Amino acid sequence: MKLAANAIAVMRGEDIVVDALSFDVASGEALLVKGENGAGKSTMLRAIAGLLPLEAGSLTIEGSDPDFAEATIAEQCHYLGHENAMKGNLSVGENLQFWQDFAGHPHLTILEALDMVGLDGLDSVPFAHLSTGQRRRASIARMLVSYRPIWLLDEPTAGLDDASSSQFAALMGAHLEDGGIVIAATHVPLHLEKTRELVLQTSTDT
Amino acid sequence: MKALLIRELRLSLRSGGGAIPALLFYAAVVIVIPFAVGPDPILLATIAGACLWIGALLASLLGLERMFRDDAEDGSLDQMLIGQTPLPLVVFVKSLVHWTVTGLPLTLTAPLFGIFLGLEGAPLGAAMATLAVGTPSISFIGAVGAAVTVSMARGGLLLSVLVLPLCVPVVIFAVGAVRAVSGSIDPFWPPFLMVSGISLLFAVLGPFVAALALRQGHG
Amino acid sequence: MSISTTTDKTDNSAQITARPGISALANPTRFLALVRVVLPFFVLVTIALLAVGLWLGFSAPDDYQQGRTVRIMFVHVPAVWMAMGSYMVMVSGALGVLVWRHPLADVASRAAAPLGAAFTFLGLATGSIWGRPMWGTWWIWDARLTSFLILLIIYLGLIALWRSIEEPARSARMAAVVILVGAINIPIIKFSVDWFTTLHQPASVLRSDGPALAPEFLYPLLIMGLAFLFLFLTLHLMAMRNEIMRRQIRTLQRKLARNRKPTSGHVS
Q: Could you report the per-residue pLDDT of A157-198, keeping only the tens digit for each?
């Protein structure tokens, strides 16, 4: 499987923040997107997830997973944004159960996923009671309960301590070994092998 | 879809108090009217159908603002836009849940509020029937207003301004049907069928247009 | 733990240009040049048509039923036509925004809204003044009047919507959706006099068996209709020009703000 961007341009609000950007990522590879604030990292990820339209260029995918043969690129993605997409007054388990049912392609069970992110035993606790780091980990568990070949991660380790970060690195590693793709926008190193870097920079002209 | 239905119902019960805010508001509107127009039973019975409908319309507008706002704020809407579930279906379920906690309880409690306004017998039945088939249209067309104003910090007022004109036909025909039963020469069925037709039209149109607005406006 | 980061040379050439947004318009210069050329002509035509139309209108004979008040028709009917015409302009603009994403489309819609609202208000006001001697009331809640009042509310709601969303592209798309939904009201207005029993008289110009007006009323009415059409076109072009300029100023201001270096603060 290979995801390729061909000279894509994306607008955020009134400005084109990503312009003539090309890259490709293959199965088992992680693409680390770097750049200063406002360079367009989040914008690029949101465009791949289909949340922002492409002003120019195209995104293509080759050799999709047979389960996703009919799916659009966005439908093959897990998107971990700045927000956790969880409801405070539902329990962690209820939140994850909903996203599993909603997203389809069930992968790990809720309890297994919570175990993987170190939240075992917390499935009946309301999400609002979790700490910032625990919330982030619950959100990571959302990506484990249903399967998507492509993970789009926007500052995935925000709010995670070192131990949780390396635990998350192991999860990403496992996803890559399964033949998945990771595209992560981050300031901090993710401790991954087989990473390529994409540096976005704001031009100083105009 | 069942998953979304369960989640939405749970959320409205746990954070929104379910049907209680809408019912309280409904009660407030209905109780104020006798003070405003005077306690004359004959006059009240004449306008009772209209009062129930005005109360239902205003109470239904209450929860609309939050239909997509919470999901947009906590990132859930992003996931719904990415997911394989067709977005109009998501909107349909959310509208349905909105109706379950507003339109439906208002319909069921209409006999109680009818008593205060001197509405009973056939006109009361007519009022309940029009509320049952008519209030869903407010939830479905309201979804469009909610989708359009989702990114606005204080979109509630604008939402009402945009949605109310579209609710006018339903109110006209529904109140017309109630009046037909309470002794007018006009027949009951034509306006009643118009109400049903408008509800069906909005049930189809609303989710698609709201989904379009969500896709175009979010991101 | 071994961390091997292979940086792909060809891939990190991503470059970002801070270009003025598309809202700076695909080709505003050509449009503005066109406006400069045709506007004086449109102004002259509007004045001429209004002069002729009003003169003919005032020299038209009194109606045997309505007397002098029939002359209100020469303002009322064209105003109502343009109230709905403006909405059709907005509908095509909305399609332009959603389907073709043409940058001028939203400018056209947005410029038409206040004009449409003004024509709608004029239609309602003249109708009310006409209704007082004819029907004995300023206002009646019948289908035609009610649906027309709703048109005014839709116009005002849209103007509020455009103003509430700061970002032009987003406000354009949201307004376009509402415009299309509100378009349901236009056929309701048009056919309300046929579908429902109302005080308002049925259509007398646009009907399948030809106009039902005497020529001494019909011709002034048609000329006034044409005059109002040109009045709309003139004002619409001017409003579009203003909107384009407003957006150009906005783009320049944003550019200015972006190029300003952040000032470094220090705590003493």
A: 888 888 888 889 899 999 999 889 999 998 777 777 778 888
ipTM of the complex: 0.90
**pLDDT tier, B17 (very low <50, low <70, confident <90, very high otherwise):** confident
pTM exceeds 0.90 = no
pLDDT band, very low/low/confident/very high, at C131 (cuts 50, 70, 90): confident
Confidence label for C206 from pLDDT (cuts 50, 70 and 90)? low
Using alpha carbons only, give the angle A150, A151, A155 rounded to the nearest 5 degrees.
Answer: 155
pLDDT tens digits, one per residue of C246-267: 888 888 888 887 775 544 444 4
Give the lowest-confidence range in C137-151, C203-217, C224-238: C203-217
Residue B45: what residue type? A
Cα–Cα separations (whole angstroms), residue C103 to A51, A205, C53, C243: 21, 24, 36, 12
By Cβ distance, the residue of A53, A77, A81 closest to B75 is: A81
Give me the sheet containing A30-34, strands edge to edge.
A77-80, A150-154, A181-185, A30-34, A195-199
- Nearest-angstrom CA–CA distance, C129 and C125: 6
Query: Token digits for C241?
Result: 């020009």
B78: chain A residues, CB-CB within 8 Å: 49, 51, 79, 81, 83, 85
Distances (CA, A) of C90 to B110, C172, C176: 41, 11, 8
Residue B166 burial (C-beta neighbours within 10 Å; 0-12, 13-18, 19+): buried
Q: Between the CA of residue C135 and those of C129, C131, C144, C200, C224, what are the distances in Å?
A: 10, 5, 14, 9, 25
Chain C residue nearest residue B161, CA to CA: C157
**Structure confidence at residue C198 (pLDDT):** 63
Rounded-to-integer distance, Cα B70 and Cα B74, Å = 6
DSSP SS3 for C221: helix
- Taking one residue from B and the other from C, the number of pairs with CB-CB distance under 8 angstroms is 60
Partners of residue C20 in chain A, C-beta under 8 Å: 15, 206
As a whole number of angstroms, the distance between CA B145 and CA A24 comes to 40
Where exactly are the structural domains of chain B? Answer: 2-218
List the single best residue of B91, B159, B212 to mutate versus C (max C Cβ within 10 A): B212
Distance CA A50, CA A75 (A): 9
User: Using a CB-CB distance cutoff of 8 angstroms, which residues of chain A are in contact with residue B9?
Assistant: none
